[in-house]
Design goal:
Distance between the termini: 35 Å
Strand content: 5-15%
Number of helices: 8
Radius of gyration: 17 Å
Number of domains: 2
Largest sheet: 4 strands, mixed
Low-confidence stretches: 198-204
Shape: globular
Mean pLDDT: 89
CATH class of the largest domain: Alpha Beta
CATH topology of the largest domain: Beta Polymerase, domain 2
Length: 204
């Protein structure tokens, strides 16, 4: 059982993240920049485990909108990024909270189709577009490699949000990764997925 202090700190962290999320989304929306919340906080917004949320905010934007998004957020007071080249994301800070504008997750450009699949969900007293659980899992499983094989976090998320997942799409879009197949096989054995293998038969 976790101590009371841990729970209090977690609530404070979530409250601060909520403020940053709503502020960031409002700024992008006011500047007509399509976006969608992703990462652990997005999964928490969908009903996932609070314990997996870290002190950062990840927001998807199209590559063509990155420069405008950065300018709008900097003008609103977020600390501008350091001049470090990154092929996937650019980082700003809202006080001490990290805000990543992700434009090419795992080297796949954010598209209109990806943003269109996001659903507008309650975030505090407002709403924000949130990526689907399937899109989140695809991004996470795509980068699995021999150095990133601790699936504990993804297991907790998949278990709690199983009913929201398009498992067929997750399987199809991660089929090339043996690590993704191993993880999905584990979920099949645990009864978390729909139990359907790539060829359409039911897993046993």
């Amino acid at each position: 059982m976790r101590p009371l202090g841990y729970a209090i700190d977690m609530v404070r962290t979530l409250d601060r993240l909520l403020d940053t999320v709503t502020r960031t989304v409002h700024i992008l929306r006011d500047n007509e920049i399509p976006c969608a919340l992703t990462g652990d906080y997005a999964m928490y917004a969908r009903g996932g485990p609070a314990a997996e949320v870290h002190s950062e905010v990840d927001v998807l934007v199209r590559p063509a909108d990155l420069a405008r998004g950065l300018s709008a957020l900097e003008a609103a007071g977020l600390r501008p990024p350091l001049p470090i080249a990154d092929a996937e994301r650019t980082t700003l800070y809202d006080h001490d909270i990290r805000v990543d504008l992700v434009f090419r997750p795992n080297f796949r450009a954010v598209t209109d189709e990806l943003l269109a699949r996001a659903e507008r969900l309650p975030i505090g007293s407002d709403t924000a577009p949130v990526v689907t659980v399937a899109d989140f899992l695809v991004d996470e499983l795509t980068i699995a490699d021999p150095h990133r094989l601790d699936f504990t976090r993804l297991l907790h998320i998949a278990r709690e949000l199983r009913a929201q997942v398009d498992w067929g799409r997750v399987r199809a879009e991660t089929a090339a990764s043996p690590y993704a197949r191993a993880f999905l096989g584990l979920l099949d054995d645990l009864g978390i997925t729909d139990g359907r293998c790539e060829h359409g038969s039911t897993a046993v």
